[in-house]
Amino acid sequence: MTSVLRGDTARYIASRVATTLLVIVGAMLLLFALTVLVPGDPASALLGPQATPEYARRFIAEMGLDQPIHVRFFRFFAHLSVGDFGTDVLTGRKVSGIILDVLPYTVILTFGSIGLAVVLGIPLGCLAATRPGTVLDTVLAVGSVAVIAVPGFVVAILLLLVFSIWLDWLPVLGAGRAGDLGDQAVRLILPIVALSIGWVGFIARLVRSSMLDVMGEAYIRTARAYGLPSGMVVFKYALKNACIPTLAVLGLGVGRLLGGAVLVEIVFARPGLGRLVLDAISTRNFPVLQGAVLVVVVLFVMTNLVVDLCYSAIDPRIRRGG
Amino acid sequence: MTAPLLEIRDLHLRAATQRGSAHILRGINLDIGAGRIVGVVGESGSGKSSLALCLLRLLPSNITELSGRMTMAGTELLGLPEAQFAAWRGGRIAMIFQDPMTALNPVFSIGTQLVDVARRRFPALDTKAARARAEAMLGRVGIADPGLRMGAYPHQLSGGMRQRVMIAMALLVQPDLLLADEPTTALDATVEAQIVGLFESLRADFSGSILFISHHLGLVAQLCDDVVVMYGGTVVETGPVGSVCADPRHPYTAALLACELEDAPAENDGSGRLMSIPGDVPDPVVTQAGCVFAPRCALAEAPCEMPQVLRRAPDGRQVACWKAVS
Amino acid sequence: MRSIFRHVAGSGTGLLGLVLVVAIVFAAVTAPWISPYDPDRLDVLHRFAGMSGAHWLGTDHLGRDLLSRLLHGASVAMAVSLLAIAVALSVGTVLGALAAYLPSGQERVILVLFDIISSFPSLVLALVVVAVFGPSTVNVILIVAVTLMPQFGRVARAQVLSVKSAPFLEAEILLGAGWARIFLRHLLPNIAGPLIVLASVEVPVVITVEAGLSFIGLGVRPPLASWGTLIYDGYSYLSDSPLPVVASCITLSLATLGFTLFGEALRDAVDPKRSSVR
Q1: Do B120 and A227 count as a contact with CB atoms less than 8 A apart?
Q2: How confident is the model at residue B117 (pLDDT cuts 50, 70, 90)?
């Protein structure tokens, strides 16, 4: 029995890891295809029309752009798969180093936001579900739709306007002085709130409706019929079931949040992958752009993998279906 | 005869529905003797399951009235404050539900669910001792290799196995009263026979009383000591199962018995519908002055327009029909 | 149809959504006629004018009338949403229906393609494409369409799978009906409901992505007035006057709120089981 169970789980994990790898390879393929598709001759597209002919020639040779397409293709994959994203066209720095410098800012912002959304959303959803039809429930329902509908970067601008400019409670821009954790934490408040508030509403609403569904299930009646304390019924027996749909959307949520983080970083003038990508686009710095985008995609699919594995840990029925 | 374990007197249950106030239980009177197995039979909609849920005070939120008396071992259950009654659920009263497929939580192993129930009932037990008890109980209800099954999730077990787990859960709390709400209806015929066999074997070591709800009179005759025949939210006849089946005094009991003789039990499709009694069960929204069964009764006469109450015959049996008494 | 309308207008939030949607669509269609000024007319003498009878919402950093620009922004948002969703809907439906009928190996190819597209956070994918092909309104429409396509494809596939083995369809195939007839006459009407609902739910998403891209200068190009560029302009001159940024933010938020409420009310009306708001 147990061995059968382990076999199921192992097969499920293997298939999920395989899909994840496939998606990452697909994303690399797409990124490669885009560099091939760049309209016009690659050097002027990458360097801009001002580049001198000698510089352009040297650049082309350095980047291997004069090689036939299949050679470029294998080179691209060989380098990427060992984590070599190439060299920054403008500064000559290693792209991996540039990305590693700003990565923590984006990771903290994104996962801090997810964390806040979960920590606030689940209790709010439970609160509404245990008092359906009350004023509190209605207020939460209306508030949820409102925060879900308003785009995150608009929230960011309005928060900045109110709390930093009008009220002058919180510092305006940037990520804070290096080494000063307190300052950095304070400057994270508004960006995290802006990025997560929609997801707080979304999760609260999802937990509320799945909680209401679950509370009507026969197994909850069983738990009550055996006199289990109501806290245990709600927070152990019901919540674990009600969290399943929430977990399912969290994977998707990370993707939207990573996208939203780009805008929020720009509004608050924070360093991070968003700023990096935007600067790379405006300077047509392709190696940096490719590297940064690939890191975002890997972050996203790896988070999804982790979410799916948590999902199968919470819901034993998934493991069988595969 | 000793004092009964449970006495129910004039129990009424009303619920608000979209079509108006539904009178689901219309004055139930019944006794359950200590250690007796009492069968409750009736068609779907006769109020059998509602009666069981009343005993646990586990009712939906649209209930507008729950009145009468339910006295168990000297305690009036309906009057108890909720905080005190909570100890009775899964304490002195335990319940087995109709559908074992949905009655167990899908995301916890059955071991976890059994251990939680056992520790709630006996707080002195540590987890290890509770697991040992749960495992022993799984063995007792006929689950092979109980140690391994403790880690299984409900979806890994068959319907019959899940119902055995539910029975184990009920026995684990050592109740004085075990409510079994159509425990075999959702199962197929061979599994049903196994579960009925399990109930029969309980007589050997379970000392409490059992309220066994079924739409199947044959099953009740096989398993129970006493029978309570319900119709339209009332009790129409009670008595020892042998004498009621041999000599039904209420026309409804006689009709039920006739249906049982026509359908061999093996062919019973479990839908609970007895096609051979013409007409439908009474609508709980409609108030009825006279005998609830009169509209479908082949023997109905003018006196049936008067309300019929349960009356005790000299031999101890009770019938709610004027013809039976006179 | 009428009962769906009654259901949408019947709930308070649905009615609010409907009113906002009607107002925005009206503004989008009639913007050239109801705008008090040419949205591109410069008037540098009256920069950052406050609210007044002449300029209801004031003017921006170049003295352009903000109300006129916001009205024209509605046209841009609606046009982008309509076109992007139309492309995503048609391509997605065809691919999804195809996937449902293809043997599992080829079906897998389509599904993995959907997975790969979905594995890019949509805004990031948009950034990459814009980086390569340059910012333009057409690119915004195409890229949004590509990122939405898998969702329509998956819904279409699920719907087709559920009606594919219906007896009436098998009878048609036995009678030798052509693919076009089967798709247009039988499949499409049976799968249209959920797809239309999905399309309406996605409108606020498209509006948000378009505004976001335009906000960082990678979407709709000036001088075309997009809500995103208006917010960016206002944000750049925040210290001069908060009015442009506040007015643009509120307009954009009302639009996304209106379409969200409307889309959800429509979804609940079509499929009460999936109701998430009461």
Answers
A1: yes
A2: very high
Judge whether C195 and C156 are in contact, CB under 8 Å.
yes
| Tens of pLDDT, residues B65-100 | 888 899 998 888 888 898 888 888 988 999 999 888
Answer CATH for B6-92+175-325 from 3.20.20.70, 3.20.190.10, 3.40.50.300, 3.40.50.150: 3.40.50.300
**Domain at A163, CATH number:** 1.10.3720.10
Give the residue carrying structure tokens 């009600």: A242
The first and second tokens of residue C74, run together, are 């509605």
- Touching A: B residues 38-67, CB under 8 Å: 56, 58
Give the predicted TM-score (pTM) of the model.
0.80
Max Cα–Cα distance, chain A, nearest Å: 83
pLDDT of C231 strictly over 70: yes
- Is B99 in Cβ contact with A316 (below 8 Å)? no
Residues, chain A: 322
| pLDDT digit string, tens, across residues A238-294 | 988 888 888 878 877 787 788 888 888 888 888 888 888 888 888 777 778 888 888
Whether residue B113 contacts residue B130, with contact meaning beta carbons closer than 8 Å, is answered with no
d(CA A22, CA B182): 51
Shortest alpha-carbon distance between residue A228 and chain B (Å): 6
Structural domain span for residue A263: 96-319
Residue A129 lies in a domain: yes
Q: What is the pLDDT of residue A45?
A: 57
On whether both A108 and A172 belong to a single domain, the answer is yes
Give the three-class secondary structure for A90. Answer: coil
pLDDT, average across residues B134-162: 90
Q: Which residue has the tokens 């479990």?
A: B270
Q: Which residues of A touch B104 (CB under 8 A)?
A: 219, 222
ipTM here: 0.85
Interchain CB distance below 8 Å, C238 and A161: yes
Per-residue pLDDT tens over the stretch A42-55: 566 556 556 677 77
Q: Is residue A58 within 8 Å of residue A267, measured between CB atoms?
A: no
Quick check: B152 and A1 CB within 8 A? yes
Of all residues in chain A, what percent carry a pLDDT higher than 70?
86
Check: CB of residue B138 under 8 Å from CB of residue B111: no
The pLDDT value given to residue B227: 92
C277 CB neighbours in chain A (<8 A) are 141, 145, 205
Q: In whole angstroms, how far apart are CA B274 and each of B186, B280, C209?
A: 17, 10, 62
**B130, pLDDT greater than 90:** yes
Other chains touching C, judged by 3 or more CB pairs under 8 Å: A
Residue A77 · residue A29 · CB < 8 Å: no
- Euclidean distance between CA atoms C16 and C264, whole angstroms: 12
For residue B227, the cross-strand partners are: B39, B239
**Lowest-pLDDT range of A176-180, A183-187, B232-236, C135-139:** A176-180
Report whether the peptide linkage leading into residue B278 is cis, meaning its omega lies within 30 degrees of zero: no
Instruction: Please name every residue paired with B9 in a beta bridge, in sequence order, or none if there are none.
Output: B69
Nearest to A157 among C116, C122, C231 (CB): C231
Q: Considering only residues 258 to 317 of chain A, which have any Cβ-Cβ distance to chain B shorter than 8 Å?
A: 314-317
Set out the domains of chain C in order of their start, with CATH numbers. 26-251 (1.10.3720.10)
CA R_g for chain B? 20
pLDDT digits (tens, 9 = 90+) for C43-84: 777 777 777 767 677 777 776 777 888 888 888 889 899 999
Nearest Cβ partner for A228 among B106, B116, B166: B116
Rounded-to-integer distance, Cα A210 and Cα A230, Å: 18
pLDDT digits 0-9 by tens, B13-71: 988 888 888 888 888 888 898 889 999 998 887 888 889 989 988 888 888 888 889 99
Among C86, C117, C95, C70, CA closest to C200: C86
**Are A225 and B58 inside 8 Å of each other by CB?**
yes
